[in-house]
User: What shape does this take?
Amino acid sequence: MEYAAINDHAQNHWKLSAIQGIKNLLTQIDFNAETIPLENTKKLKKLLTSLKGSVLSKEELSIVEELIKL
Assistant: This one.
């Protein structure tokens, strides 16, 4: 997803920024201590919102939904 956004940066600037934001949030997760709800969009959004400390942007929410579909 990130690679595709980088290659089409002119049209996907918002998407690239959102991907990088979500990627940054995911690096904060201790995967040994936490179960990541990859099948549940609502729970994943809640986890990422908690890590961010504020509401996810519309673009970030879109990326989370794409991740769940993968």
Notes: Residues 2-69 form one domain.
